[in-house]
């Protein structure tokens, strides 16, 4: 189910103007702190009333200033996941989950508790009280409670911000399952390039209250003029298939015949994976590299070179696995004679790909996200 947002909100000196339509999938509102992400998602939720505009999910209008439509939050059929879990401390996990079902429309059957418990791995937690849950466990219960309200759109306002890295890695796969298995549209606020790369079907970039770009994760993260979190967030996204686990702690992937080694991935053989590769982790060579410790070498042809304002340059190498971006110095570009059409090799250490940069993907080819 798609949704459309066209609204204006003024809060003090801050002005938000957002106009975009997103297809089914997981849409990330991506931007720095203060860009308007939370203001926008709260306007969709009905917690903030826009000064003007229209909000529509499928064919159902939630807000239309011209037609004097402004549904209250309880009638918008939305699930909301906050930064903190906000569980009822006097209720068990099971009762917190069942509370969500109270908000499911009477004429619309909500998701079965057993389905959500299984999806989020909550079986062993049902009789615990929130005080005895970890941060990641609490957030999984919060996600389950939101899903059991049978929402038409799931809202998530930086749901991983309050968690440490270990707990973030615990939660990310559940959002992938919601995206891929439940087919529920999600509007997800983030300022993390890793979350964008792993989760986003569509990315809406916000800056100073304005939508500056709308596109795929690969498009946004490959363009330093667009990515809002700095040049070190620039990189490539490729889809690969998991083909083997090795005894030395590495997993072997293949993408269009290209072999890749990454730290062991906790996924079954045959799984389709989505990898984010940071441009600053890539080394380029114009001759076949030998005698290196790096295990990943991708051959290709340079398709573009973009010089930065400082000493750096962003080189795009077209490979069988998809475009690979490398951030190098302009001095290296000159010394190696790099220019479009030149054959080159992208060299990448296996350990340069962190666990948070490897996620599940729908069964798609590299061309689908490049």
Automatic annotation (TrEMBL):
It comes from Tritonibacter scottomollicae. This is Molybdenum ABC transporter ATP-binding protein. Residues 291-357 form the Mop domain. Pfam families: ABC_tran (PF00005), TOBE (PF03459). It comes from the Bacteria. InterPro entries: AAA+_ATPase, ABC_transporter-like_ATP-bd, ABC_transporter-like_CS, Mo/tungstate-bd_C_term_dom, ModC_ABC_ATP-bd, Molybdenum_import_ModC, Mop_domain, P-loop_NTPase. The lineage of its organism: Bacteria, Pseudomonadati, Pseudomonadota, Alphaproteobacteria, Rhodobacterales. Keywords: ATP-binding, Cell inner membrane, Cell membrane, Membrane, Molybdenum, Nucleotide-binding, Plasmid, Translocase, Transport. The keyword Translocase applies. One of its GO terms (molecular function) is ATP binding. Residues 2-233 form the ABC transporter domain. SMART domains: AAA.
């Amino acid at each position: 189910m798609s949704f459309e947002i066209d609204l204006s909100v003024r809060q003090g000196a801050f002005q938000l103007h957002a106009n975009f339509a997103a297809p089914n999938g997981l849409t990330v509102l991506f931007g720095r702190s203060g860009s308007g992400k939370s203001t926008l998602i709260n306007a969709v939720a009905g917690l903030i009333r826009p000064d003007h505009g229209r909000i529509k999910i499928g064919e159902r209008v939630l807000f239309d200033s011209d037609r004097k439509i402004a549904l209250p939050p309880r009638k918008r059929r939305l699930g909301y996941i906050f930064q903190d879990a906000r569980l009822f401390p006097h209720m068990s996990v099971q009762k917190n989950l069942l509370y969500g079902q109270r908000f499911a429309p009477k004429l619309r059957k909500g998701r079965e508790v057993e389905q959500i418990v299984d999806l989020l791995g909550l079986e062993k937690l049902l009789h615990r009280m929130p005080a005895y849950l970890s941060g990641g466990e609490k957030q999984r219960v919060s996600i389950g409670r939101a899903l059991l309200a049978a929402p038409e759109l799931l809202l998530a306002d930086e749901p991983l911000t309050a968690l440490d890295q270990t707990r973030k890695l615990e939660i990310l796969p559940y959002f992938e399952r919601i995206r891929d298995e439940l087919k529920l549209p999600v509007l997800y606020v983030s300022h993390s390039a890793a979350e964008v790369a792993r989760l986003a079907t569509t990315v809406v970039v916000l800056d100073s209250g304005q939508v500056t770009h709308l596109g795929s994760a690969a498009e946004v993260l490959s363009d330093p003029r667009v990515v809002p979190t700095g040049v070190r967030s620039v990189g490539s996204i490729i889809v690969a298939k998991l083909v083997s686990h090795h005894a030395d702690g590495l997993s072997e992937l293949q993408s269009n015949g290209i072999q890749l080694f990454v730290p062991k991935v906790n996924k079954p053989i045959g799984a389709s994976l989505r990898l984010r590769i940071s441009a600053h982790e890539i080394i380029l060579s114009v001759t076949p590299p030998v005698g290196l410790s790096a295990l990943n070498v991708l051959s290709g042809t340079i398709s573009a070179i973009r010089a930065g304002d400082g000493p750096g340059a962003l080189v795009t190498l077209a490979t069988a696995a998809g475009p690979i971006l490398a951030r190098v110095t302009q001095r290296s570009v000159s010394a190696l004679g790099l220019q479009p059409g030149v054959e080159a090799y992208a060299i990448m250490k296996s350990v340069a790909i962190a666990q948070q940069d490897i996620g599940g993907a729908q069964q798609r080819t590299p061309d689908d996200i490049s």
